[in-house]
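Budget justification aside, the reviewers requested a transparent look at the raw inputs and outputs of the sequence design task funded under Objective 1. We therefore reproduce one unedited record. The lines immediately below are the structure tokens for a 413-residue chain.
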């Protein structure tokens, strides 16, 4: 398309960098989720809410690294803590005080987490949580949901996803469908050890789980003796205790990731004492769980600083309110002007969908390149995630640019 051709000719340095990268990386990158067709932009640096690419273009970043970049590109409070932390050693290979302070803070925030263990990514946390749930119940099957995403080896997008799978015995159920899910789960009731669910489908399109649906999973898990896991890797930022605290639904286990490492690689899984005590090294038959970087000192210090000073109840409320009003304003204009777009999501995590049944790919594509031309960076699939470096003015500017881009798409397709 013309939009793609103009993108290609405007970004010669990115194209060159990309061609070079394909010589050592399959597809030129190491994260499939950030690939852009026909080739991705190479970003040189970030500043506040902006990113600057290798051709010198500046964009306001509304991807925020798929929700993990909640602090923006630079944050003075984190920077100071990390620099001070550097003086105490890169790696210590031992128990540290920031590690137990961070665990204590997270356990006090999430009602389901009596005890917690750290890992290095959301994917790893989910693999560990699922394995723990199966071990605890002595069962084999894992219930997951259509459109669910629990990490690079744990996604359930269906046939066109091309997902790499770990050898779990998955039972895939329809999200937000109480009757459909009930009948499948009852069929395998005695074999199901774990039910894992996102309180809002994230990568699956920012589709909030209905409270009644999530509550029905709570009741069903208890009834059949399965471990219910809430994957709050994204939704943990919707309130100080994640979506579970907002809804008052307490799973048996919870997984976290992304922003709780204060910008560093992070994952965590935790839950009821009876389950998590399996890892208590004082017990004779405890499960061994290692991980060289599980308690990396810089991650612990950055994470602790973030929860103490940045991820406060007030800051999270403000950011989520900003996202709620962006979504409401946009959907109002989309409706009034019959523009073929809709924004779904909760708080500061949202997704723009192209709603016309025809030319779906072209519509979202054109929209994406229109926004890039105006200096706004969203995920090519439509994800829009806010961060603390953004001002109200940035978000208002984005709102206007989205409306203009949507009008442009409507008139040209
Ligand atoms: N779970 C959810 C809900 C996610 O959104 C993600 C990442 O996007 C993950 C798990 C995986 O986390 P990570 O990318 O840190 O492995």
């Amino acid at each position: 398309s013309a939009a793609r051709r103009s993108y290609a000719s405007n970004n010669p340095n990115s194209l060159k960098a990309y061609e070079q990268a394909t010589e050592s990386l399959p597809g030129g990158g190491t994260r499939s989720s950030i690939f852009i067709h026909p080739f991705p932009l190479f970003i040189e640096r970030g500043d506040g809410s902006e990113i600057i690419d290798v051709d010198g273009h500046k964009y306001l970043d509304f991807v925020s690294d798929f929700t993990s970049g909640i602090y923006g590109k630079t944050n003075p409070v984190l920077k100071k803590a990390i620099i001070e932390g550097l003086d105490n050693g890169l790696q210590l290979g031992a128990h540290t005080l920031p590690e137990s302070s961070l665990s204590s803070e997270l356990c006090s925030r999430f009602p389901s987490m009596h005890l917690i263990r750290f890992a290095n990514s959301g994917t790893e946390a989910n693999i560990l949580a699922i394995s723990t749930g199966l071990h605890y119940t002595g069962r084999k099957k894992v219930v997951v949901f259509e459109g669910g995403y629990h990490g690079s080896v744990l996604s359930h997008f269906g046939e066109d996803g091309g997902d790499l799978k770990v050898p779990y015995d998955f039972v895939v159920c329809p999200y937000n469908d109480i009757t459909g899910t009930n009948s499948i789960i009852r069929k395998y009731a005695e074999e199901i050890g774990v039910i894992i669910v996102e309180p809002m489908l994230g990568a699956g399109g920012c589709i909030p789980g209905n409270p009644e649906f999530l509550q029905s999973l709570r009741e069903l898990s208890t009834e059949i003796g399965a471990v219910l896991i809430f994957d709050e890797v994204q939704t943990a930022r919707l309130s100080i205790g994640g979506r579970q605290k907002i809804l008052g639904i307490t799973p048996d286990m919870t997984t976290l990731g992304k922003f709780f490492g204060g910008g560093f690689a992070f994952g965590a899984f935790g839950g009821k004492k009876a389950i998590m005590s399996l890892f208590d090294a004082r017990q004779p038959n405890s499960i061994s769980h290692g991980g060289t970087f599980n308690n990396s000192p810089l991650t612990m210090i950055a994470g602790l600083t973030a929860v103490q000073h940045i991820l406060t109840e007030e800051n999270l409320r403000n950011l989520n309110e900003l996202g709620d009003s962006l979504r409401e304003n946009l959907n109002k204009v989309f409706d009034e002007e019959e523009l073929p777009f809709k924004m779904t999501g909760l708080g500061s995590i949202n997704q723009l969908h192209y709603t016309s049944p025809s030319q779906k790919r072209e519509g979202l594509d054109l929209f994406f390149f229109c926004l890039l031309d105006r200096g706004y960076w969203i995920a090519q699939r439509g994800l829009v995630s806010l961060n603390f470096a953004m001002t109200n003015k940035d978000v208002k500017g984005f709102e206007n640019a989205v409306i203009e881009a949507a009008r442009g798409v409507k008139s040209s397709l």
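Residues 313-336 form the longest helix (24 residues). The two ends are 12 Å apart (CA to CA). Computational costs for records of this kind are itemized in the attached budget.
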